[in-house]
Specification:
The complex is a heterodimer of chains A (about 475) and B (about 100). Chain A has 15 helices and 17 strands. Chain A has about 475 residues and is of the alpha+beta class. Chain A has three domains: about 290 residues, no CATH class; about 110 residues, no CATH class; about 60 residues, Arc Repressor Mutant, subunit A (Orthogonal Bundle), CATH 1.10.10.410. In chain A, the strands form four sheets. A nine-stranded mixed sheet of chain A has the order 3-7-8-11-1-12-13-14-15. Chain A has a three-stranded antiparallel sheet with strand order 6-5-16, with no helix packed on it. A two-stranded antiparallel sheet of chain A has the order 4-17. In chain A, helix 3 links the parallel strand 13 and strand 14. In chain A, helix 5 crosses helix 6, helix 12 packs across helix 15 and helix 13 runs antiparallel to helix 14. Chain B has a domain of about 45 residues: Histone, subunit A (Orthogonal Bundle), CATH 1.10.20. Chain B has a two-stranded antiparallel sheet with strand order 2-3. The longest helix of chain B has 22 residues. At the A-B interface, strand 2, helix 1, strand 10 and strand 17 of A face helix 1, strand 1, helix 3 and strand 3 of B. Strand 10 of chain A pairs antiparallel with strand 3 of chain B. The structure holds zinc ion. Zinc ion (ZN) binds next to loops of chain A.
Chain lengths: ~475, ~100
């Protein structure tokens, strides 16, 4: 059986986080009553004229620079002509040809401990369409609130740099992080503010020609992206191994059934008759404008991860989790700046705090009641031995729920670690008396059972007993030696 | 000699523009459009050596608006001319894929 290689490209559409739309002053927002953020421009009324949103242009410039693109010093817009009810003007204003705002860039993508450099062919600006819903009556309903929302398109270079579903997913995740860091897109795939259309072909490994490609739509999560591409690669291979030919087509992904299906496309669809948009003058970038935007670029996720590993001696795993969102990374650095030990801060954030946030459905760490100061205090309480690790978990939960000060929680609930030998010995003796079998095993040298008795003492003390002291005292009481 | 548009090309363009032309109208279009093509042929005769290709003839750039929200039209007004509407949406016949 031949060995196959997939070649994967990707088109990503990102709705820009401007306040107003691309060519009119209607609000750019999600949800709300249908057709309430519309005007003559974004509904294509005769006689209306578009005016470019400077912020949207700058956001694309910002992205293009972050993606190491060359900038087209003069960049123009085009009309892409087609009829569809979600497109009220019967053309979409887009950028075609050689002068997209950004071209020939790249993004370094970490996959499995190595870096894949994915080349970017173009980064351009266009407008989003309205939304079409199918009604049970057999008609369609149209909402133009999204019509004219600034949309950025990012297309990977051909020949493709990606060869596995995992790489494609990692690319999308890395790109999303960059866009969110740049503050140009909120990256919510489930709301459609970030959309991705991979295209892929399969060829015998080592071949220098390409197979027939298909395009995949309806991928609404990172998981769907990976599954959809995996499925599609296997489908291509099955067709080729059966001696068949892959049909060039657009396919939809059905996430529930875990399979792709051919989407019917209009035969004239490809005939877009692009021409320069006569209602818009060209955008011209100056060196000053470009340098000013370049200077305002934030530290990007991959660079931040590297710095976290070096500056704070964090393992790659911790650093990767911390840089997932800019807010989380900033929070971490705040905790450390306040004096907490970095590894301890990372452990709490990626462990118990992440778990509590997950359970409560909180996505942004800034929305949680535990402040960087709280976390710094909690870590301090553990380090000073005021509370045990297991009590600290209870304290964190209390702070998480109420926003109370960790030290006050410890005070109010009497959770201070007990190291007082008399008190500890009393608990130890009680535990031994209540568990004679376990005690006997320890006496006979089964030291694993000692841990069980430690657990019993922790229970009696409601987690407050100093576990090292407890071990020592149990050994002493039972006359055994522990290291 | 001017490149002539065929009836087939005209039918294609008419289809793209969603125009249902009768045979007579097609012939008329053929004549009009080929006339137009001839005009462009004449323009092609101009010597444009040294003239940068351009999409816009005025040296005007960067006409921007600031990213400020202004009130949109009320929903009733946006929907006022809709041939059909329901629950705040325009309703249209379902698109039949070809
Ligand atoms: Zn508008």
């Amino acid at each position: 059986m031949a060995e196959w290689e997939a070649c994967i490209g990707m088109e990503v559409h990102a709705e820009l986080l401007t306040d107003s739309k691309m060519f009119c002053s209607c609000a750019n927002a999600f949800g709300g009553e249908p057709n309430t953020r519309c005007c003559p421009v974004c509904t294509g009324m005769p006689g209306s004229l578009p005016v470019m949103n400077r912020k949207a242009v700058e956001m694309v410039l910002r992205t293009a620079l972050a993606l190491n693109c060359e900038i087209s010093m003069t960049s123009i817009f085009h009309r892409k002509n087609y009829f569809y009810p979600d497109l009220p003007k019967n053309y979409q204003i887009s950028q075609y040809g050689d002068t997209p705002i950004g071209k020939r860039g790249w993004l370094d993508v970490p996959v499995d401990g190595r870096i894949v450099r994915v080349h970017i062919r173009r980064v351009h600006l266009e407008e989003d369409t309205g939304k079409l819903f199918h009604l049970p009556t057999g008609e369609s309903a149209v909402d133009y609130n999204r019509s004219g929302v600034p949309l950025m398109e990012i297309v990977t270079e051909f020949p493709p740099d990606m060869h596995t579903a995992e790489e494609a997913r990692a690319y999308l995740q890395t790109l999303r992080n960059v866009l969110v860091y740049l503050g140009v897109c909120d990256g919510r795939m489930e709301q459609g503010s970030l959309r991705c259309e991979p295209n892929l072909s399969v060829r015998p490994k080592g071949s220098d020609t390409f197979g027939v490609k298909t395009e995949l739509k309806n991928l609404n999560s990172f998981r769907a992206v990976q599954r959809g591409i995996e499925y599609e690669i296997q489908r291509h291979i099955a067709v080729l191994e059966a001696g068949g030919k892959v049909v060039q087509e657009t396919r939809g992904w059905n996430d529930e059934r875990g399979e792709s299906f051919p989407m019917r496309t209009k035969e004239y669809e490809q005939d877009y008759r692009y021409f320069p948009e006569p209602d818009l003058v060209p955008v011209q970038f100056s060196e000053e404008w470009i340098e000013q935007v370049r200077a305002s670029l934030p530290e990007l996720p991959l660079a931040k991860r590297q710095r976290f590993m070096e500056q704070y001696a964090l393992p790659e795993y911790d650093a990767t989790l911390l840089i997932e969102s800019r807010a989380t990374a900033d929070y971490f650095e705040e905790v450390v700046k306040l004096g907490a030990e970095p590894k301890a801060a990372a452990n709490w954030m990626n462990g118990d705090l992440a778990r509590l946030m997950n359970a409560a459905g909180i996505e942004d760490i800034r929305d949680c009641k535990v402040t960087p100061r709280h976390l710094r205090d909690l870590i301090g309480l553990v380090q000073k031995g005021t509370v045990t690790g297991s009590v600290a978990k209870q304290v964190l939960e209390e702070v998480f729920n109420t926003g109370a000060d960790p030290a006050q929680v410890v005070q109010a609930k009497g959770l201070t670690q007990v190291s007082d030998t008399d008190q500890l010995r009393a608990w130890v003796q009680q535990a031994i008396a209540e568990n004679p079998d376990a005690a006997e095993k320890v006496r006979n040298g089964k030291l694993q059972t000692l841990q069980f008795l430690v657990g019993q003492v922790m229970k009696l003390s409601r987690g407050r007993a100093n576990p090292n002291e407890v071990r020592r005292l149990i050994a002493e009481e039972l006359g055994v030696q522990v290291e | 000699m001017a490149q002539r548009l065929t009836l087939e090309q005209i039918a294609h363009v008419a289809r793209l523009a969603r125009l249902a032309l009768s045979e007579q109208e097609m012939r008329q279009m053929e004549k009009h459009l080929n006339n137009l093509m001839a005009q462009f042929e004449r323009l092609q005769e101009l010597d444009t050596t040294g003239v940068e290709p351009t999409a816009h003839s005025f040296p005007v750039y960067n006409v921007f608006r600031e990213d400020v929200v202004q009130p949109s039209l009320p929903q009733e007004e946006i929907l006022a001319n809709a041939p059909d509407q329901r629950d705040g949406c325009f309703t249209v016949p379902i698109i039949v894929e070809e």
